[in-house]
Fold:
Amino acid sequence: MAMAGLYRRVLPSPPAIDFASSEGKQLFLEAIQSGTMEGFFKLISYFQTQSEPAYCGLASLSMVMNALAIDPGRKWKGPWRWFDESMLDCCEPLEKVKATGISFGKLVCLAHCSGARVEAFRTNQSTIDDFRKYVMACSSSDDCHVISSYHRGSFQQSGAGHFSPIGGYHAGKDMALILDVARFKYPPHWVPLTLLWEAMDTLDGASGRRRGFMLISKLHREPSLLYTLSCKHESWISIATYLVDDVPCLLKSDDVKDIKNVLSVILSSIPSDFGEFIKWVAEVRRREEDGGQSLSQEEKGRLAVKEEVLKQVQETGLYRHVTEFLSSERSCCRAIPMAAHEDNLPGIAARVCCQGAVLLSGMSGSSNGFCCRETGVNCFKVNGDKLVTVVSGTVVNGNGEHGVDVLVPSSQTEPSCCGCNPTDGTGTHPMSNDVLTALLLALPPETWSGIKEEKLLQEICNLVSTKNLPTLLQEEVLHLRGQLQLLKRCQDGKEEEDLGAPLF
Structure:
């Protein structure tokens, strides 16, 4: 006989009050009038139901990240970048989350790694008065949201540990609105804030630590303007270990005498699939959907900023050394792909468009099976003399042909009259030179401390120092460094130890 299954639960009331009940509606109206429902409208616009019974943490985070309009820097489906539970996999494998859920510390790690500003507190690190103050502040604004980790038993609800965002606050009744992401089980509901604190002030059996709450807000700029670390590929663990643990040991060698030795030691041993670890963030679109090749002001603005970051990378002293090393005939670093300037522009354009077609198709992995023809490159000037590039092509595969535009920066030292040199692909494609430079800048400062030659140590520290970098590049590098250290912290199982540990 087939099992009938479960259809929702009756919300225990009291202590909770159903949001859609008469009393719940009255609380909502009064809270609006008091100005403590401002955050509700963004959250409710992106309210979602967790797709797995143990995905409450992932659903809460993706809902909040979308409400804050944070760009994930990686695609969801087709060309669209959008936070979804399936993308929140960098701090814990999804299969493990599906089986056992996610800990408080790893959800904090995910929020950081995904590009949010996060402040997290366990109940033994805060007070109920502080919690009330934070809930009121975030409820009075739409640029900060609270995710609570609590035990359902305190509300006489079935189940144990749970995550959900707080959607609003009623100051007169001292009640918080929980937008329960397990909507198949319970509807949104109001609960006394004192009882919610008690529900948070419980031990998580898995970690042995108190539950708590996290404040999530948007950084003052997109965290990944041009570069981001990808944890989608299984190689990220070995690459993160290599960069954080192995490189400092390798640099202690007596053979490290100059900058070329430093680069040789690092790059000759780097895992061959490191290209899956650090990515360019590019814009891809179907030409047919956008009515031609004209760029919107929004597109021009994004590309102008990307161009500036790329230009700043190429103006660093480290970039010059990396370029010289990669072009040297004596380079033994065979794992590093040759720089793009050794290809002709049509070949680069074809590969770029094929990669764009893969994104648009919703597929992942290789662009094999896609053939690009009728490629072209058009450059546009935005914000003065800054150049942005649209690499276009007609891509053919078994499903027909598609017009593809890939929008990338076009940094050129001496552009021709049209802004592009038809015989030189420099600046129209993610090159190993700038990607490697960004990755080296992002390594933790202690990476270089083992270098024995004092003069060389001082030289490399000057090259990789973030203090003198332009603001845009400095923030880009620090975000990459924070991502790298968070990933390593999670890999080492240390994400629960100190939620406030500095990222760089």
Q: What stands out?
A: The chain has two domains: 17-218, 227-439.
